[in-house]
Specification:
The protein is α/β, with parallel strands linked by helices and 298 residues long. Helices cover 41% and strands 21% of the residues. The strands form three sheets. An eight-stranded mixed sheet has the order 5-8-2-1-11-13-14-12, with helices on both faces. Strands 6-7-10-9 form a four-stranded mixed sheet.
Length: 298
Amino acid sequence: MSPLPHFDNDAVRKADVLLEALNWIRRFRGRHVVIKLGGSVMEEQEAVRAFLTDVIFMEAVGMRPILVHGGGKAINAAMAGAGIEPRFVQGRRYTDDATLEIVAKVLAGDICQSLVDEIIRQGGDAVGLHFDTLNCLKGRKLMLPGSDGAPLDLGRVGEVTDIDRDLLLMTCREGRIPVLPSVALDEQGGKLNVNADTAAAAVARMIQAEKLVFLSDVPGIFLDRKDPSTLQSHLNAARCRELIRDGIIDAGMVPKVEAALEALEAGVGKVHIIDARIPHSVLLEIYSNQGIGTEIVR
């Protein structure tokens, strides 16, 4: 028997990775995934560029990604430049008319356009869907109860009540990646500042997406944030509610997880919370047999 020819072990490992991904690529072909990009990771340009490369890959192998983004730190910087002091009510940014114009400009004019431009620069195709192009998110003013039960005045803060479903799905079918800043229009055409987590969950819910992915600057849900070994790779809805009740899921993670649970109830397949700072975190979570963040199922 003749000796085996020399081969590159690294090349074989790469082939094994592709074969592992093949099953998942087949499974998710033609399915929609809504990805919310936010947190301090948006300030890390290299991490954002690498993430967008992953999104282009997903679209190229047949998945239909939809991006929803916020931009809290950039909004704070723009407000400081305008001499406006941010004010928060129950964790929501109080949004008067002056603040709303800054929010709209930063999200739609700056961040959304920069994401679209970078996707196109890398050879993909993308379009921003918002009040200045073709609007997708529709909403109404958000009313939260105060400690005395009376409604709180949040200004021009809203919640998503509907989407232009046909526009969104048609954009995906055309092979373009929709990018949606978290600004909705009300029935009178007025702009509303919407929490990006809840906006992404609403979109996923209304199209019954296969997956809803929250990309942030945390690896997922921990039972003890001081102990990395307590990262939970898999949780169901009932367990999440227990962790919220016990205060283990707290602070800014609560609205994220509550939005995730609403999406699951409406038919979204799975919700993932992953760290965008880890290279190729989206691909590792979706196209490998062992993910790296926290997946939540119904």
